[in-house]
Every structure is written in structure tokens, then in C-alpha cells.
Design a protein that fits this description.
By secondary structure, the chain is of the alpha+beta class. The protein is 22% helix and 8% strand. Bound molecules: zinc ion. Zinc ion (ZN) binds next to loops.
Length: 72
């Protein structure tokens, strides 16, 4: 069969669960399969960000235990 008119819907794997997601406007959460997977992925990203191991504080470290910034 030869039909150039037949479009093959592009399918991408969901970054979170690996499920195949058709790359169509109908897929609202692409490249994720669902909103949940999207949130999970964002959650992991944030978790990794906040999960910085080590005691090295970035710039702005006044002391080893200076956790009173709100209080004056
Ligand atoms: Zn998924």
C-alpha cells in the first residue's frame, strides 16, 4: 500500500512512566501522558533541586547556623 496522505501520529514516550503518548493537540500534557506524570516529573525536578547534599551554603551564608533572616 502506498498512501502519502496517511499520517503517522508521532508517539513520544512519557518521561515519567514511559508510556507512549501520541504527539497530537489532543494530548494536552505531552510529552507526558497525563497531568499526574507531568506533576511528578516537576516534583522530582524540584526535589532534586532542594535535595542538595552537603553543608556548603551558597552565597549569602553569614554563619554555620544563621537561620534568622526574617527576624530582625
Ligand atoms: Zn506517564
Amino acid at each position: 500500500m502506498s498512501g502519502p496522505g496517511q499520517k503517522n501520529p508521532r508517539v513520544v514516550p512519557c518521561p515519567t512512566c514511559g508510556r507512549e503518548v501520541p504527539w497530537t493537540p489532543a494530548s494536552r500534557w505531552r510529552p507526558f501522558c497525563s497531568e499526574r506524570c507531568r506533576l511528578i516529573d516537576l516534583g522530582q525536578w524540584a526535589a532534586e533541586r532542594y535535595r542538595i547534599p552537603g553543608e556548603e551554603a551558597p552565597s549569602g551564608a553569614r554563619g554555620p547556623e544563621g537561620e534568622r533572616e526574617d527576624e530582625r
